Amino acid sequence: MIGVKSNQAYHHCIGSCLVNKADYQRSNAAQRGPGRLEQRTYFCFKINPLALAPRWKDACFGTVIQVKQLRKRVDGSQPGTEVSYFLSNAEPTNLQEANDLFDAIRHH
Questions:
Q1: In this model, does residue 5 exceed pLDDT 60?
Q2: I need a surface site. Which of 11, 38, 64, 70 has the fewest CB within 10 A?
Q3: What is the model's pLDDT at position 13?
Q4: Which of 46-50, 58-62, 78-82, 102-106 has the highest mean pLDDT?
Q5: Rg from Cα positions in the chain
Q6: Pairing of strands 80-88, 36-46
Q7: Contact 83, 64 (CB under 8 A)
């Protein structure tokens, strides 16, 4: 599994995956951190092999994972949202397999 940075050329693949409904998703309960509350929601999308640029065909990417993280400061300042993307060659076939990917992202 790899994290996708904003300067990398996976955006077309990710965009084409996200037009569909997520195959699996999970929202974690809000957790208290130092001075904030955080909640993460995970979305798992299958990758359409035709959406990949030719140079990525042999990488065997099977899944895009989107992580939306909502942070609320306890001091009352504006909440913030961060969205991250990860590519994996795993192709989960059930929610437990998707949860394993979500956990791997959270604990990396």
A1: no
A2: 11
A3: 55
A4: 102-106
A5: 15
A6: unpaired
A7: no
Mean pLDDT of 63-71: 92
**HSE, side-chain direction, 13 A CA sphere, residue 22:** 15
How many other CB atoms sit within 10 Å of the CB of residue 35? Answer: 10
Burial of 21 (0-12, 13-18, 19+ CB in 10 A): exposed
- Asked if pLDDT for residue 12 goes beyond 90, the answer is no
Strand partners, 82: 69
What is the identity of the amino acid at 84?
S
User: Residue 6 has which token pair?
Assistant: 């904003």
pTM score, two decimals?
A: 0.80
CA distance 57 to 100: 25
**What pairing do the DSSP bridges indicate for beta strands 24-27 and 2-4?**
unpaired
